[in-house]
Write a structure and sequence with these properties.
Distance between the termini: 30 Å
Strand order of the largest sheet: 1-3
Helix content: over 70%
Oligomer: single chain
Mean pLDDT: 85
CATH topology: Growth Hormone, Chain: A
Strand content: under 5%
Structural class: mainly alpha
Shape: globular
Order of helices and strands: EHHHHHHHHHHEHHHHHHHEE
Length: 433
């Protein structure tokens, strides 16, 4: 029988504030690292800026396609089902490939593994320029797998090299993720009209910032002298623990709602009568609003007795706002879009906060993070897929309201359970030497 251990709130608060959202991908292979010796203040600034800019490149794949999806479908003859699969594929990759990141980091080092992920992301994004349907799927698969690896590695690098300024770097990292998604939502259509002249060029051009970042990262990755250790730890009991599954399912269900927004918000707004440019701008505003609660919720959550109420309230806000976007008068859409961003940004931060608060040590946290991301993102992939299928079956997005309510109810139940001030019933066993 698995045991779940209560944790003193003061300890939970301290650990959450110090290491929030920064699960080390190399935690199973490296002892606690010493303070980084980066050589100079300039080198440290360059490294920090590089990590933030890399984060910026991890979301344009999703939102750039969203704003041009009707044009893609019209130009290629892609069916609604095909479009659903195309929007679902990168989310599925996030879950399927996330578990490989720690192993790759252990073998090649986090810097070099991230370098390979950036190269793969640039290749996958650039291949979209050619515009054929088969190549779109191949490109999306390659880019999605690269993002999955980088998603896991980046927070670990931030934690390792900026331990004394983790809160500031976490804020910058989160803002960069939101900024990348918002920039792609707001700029892809103008790029099509005024720069490339084609939808495929507007999608493929997002490889350019990734290539620039790749050029900046190459000397840092290849110049790293950090040695990879083969000593390790094994975490036992996690996959049989009820609380761990509640954290994982909360992560998955709230992510499903998030990627429905990334993939389908602009088409929903266009169906409601907004032109393409306005729909993209509203989607961009909604995503940028997420920054507010992404930064605020962790500080609030760790000071509460537990996180049950805040999880449920955020779900209620996010789902209510989605219903408003679907059915409220169009004159109020800006209000509902901003409200949805507030709720959704808070949910993302809350889900990541729970991984830290529910873990008794960093090794369990690393494995719980892998479990939550691996299983959670595979589950989340069904969200945008079902939205597209419902749209194809009914001819309208209105019926997706039932899906959003169902996801919200499930997330609220799991979030209530995961929000209890307990530890998962898992323990760390050291192996090797």
């Amino acid at each position: 029988m698995n045991q779940t251990f209560r944790r003193p709130q003061t300890e939970a608060q301290s650990e959450a504030i110090d290491g929030l959202d920064l699960i080390d991908a190399e935690a199973d292979s490296l002892p606690a690292p010493p303070a980084p010796q980066l050589g100079s203040k300039t080198a440290r600034i360059v490294l920090g800026a590089s990590l933030v800019l890399i984060a910026f490149n991890l979301r344009p794949l999703f939102s750039s396609l969203s704003v041009l999806l009707p044009e893609v479908m019209q130009a290629t003859g892609l069916s609604t089902t095909g479009a659903s699969l195309l929007t679902t594929l990168p989310v599925l990759c996030l879950g399927l490939f996330a578990p490989f990141a720690p192993r790759l980091a252990q073998r090649y080092g986090a810097e070099r593994t991230l370098l390979g992920a950036l190269a793969l992301l640039a290749l996958g994004t650039g291949l979209r320029w050619f515009g054929s349907v088969p190549l779109l799927f191949v490109a999306t698969f390659l880019a999605g797998s690269a993002i999955a690896i980088a998603n896991v590695l980046l927070p670990g690098l931030v934690k390792r090299d900026f331990a004394n300024s983790a809160a500031v770097m976490t804020g910058l990292y989160t803002m960069a993720l939101c900024a990348g998604s918002a920039a792609a939502a707001g700029l892809t259509l103008p790029i099509e009209h005024f720069v490339t002249g084609s939808w495929s060029g507007a999608l493929g051009i997002w490889a350019v910032p990734t290539l620039l970042m790749l050029a900046i990262w190459i000397p840092q990755a290849l110049g790293s002298r950090r040695q990879v250790s083969h000593r390790g730890f094994r975490v036992v009991g996690l996959w049989r623990d009820r609380l761990a599954w509640q954290v994982t399912l909360f992560m998955g269900l709230q992510s499903a709602i998030a990627y429905c927004i990334f993939g389908w918000l602009a088409p929903i707004l266009r169906e409601r009568g907004f032109d393409a440019a306005t729909a993209g701008a509203i989607a961009s505003l909604s995503v940028m609003t997420q920054v507010i609660t992404c930064l605020a919720v962790p500080s609030i959550a760790v000071r509460l007795k537990d996180q049950r109420i805040i999880n449920v309230v955020l779900i209620a806000i996010a789902v209510a706002a989605l219903l408003g976007i679907l059915f409220a008068p169009t004159s109020t859409i800006l209000f509902w879009a901003v409200l949805q961003g507030i709720g959704q940004g808070g949910l993302i931060a809350a889900a990541m906060t729970l991984i830290v608060l529910r873990s008794p040590d960093s090794h369990v946290a690393a494995h719980l993070s892998g479990m939550a991301q691996g299983v959670g993102y595979v589950l989340a992939a069904f969200g945008p897929l079902l939205v597209g299928l419902i749209r194809g079956w009914t001819g309208s997005f209105a019926e997706t309201a039932f899906l959003f309510v169902a996801l919200g109810v499930g997330a609220a139940i799991m979030g209530f359970g995961a929000g209890r001030a307990l530890h998962v019933g898992a323990r760390t066993v050291r192996i090797g030497g």
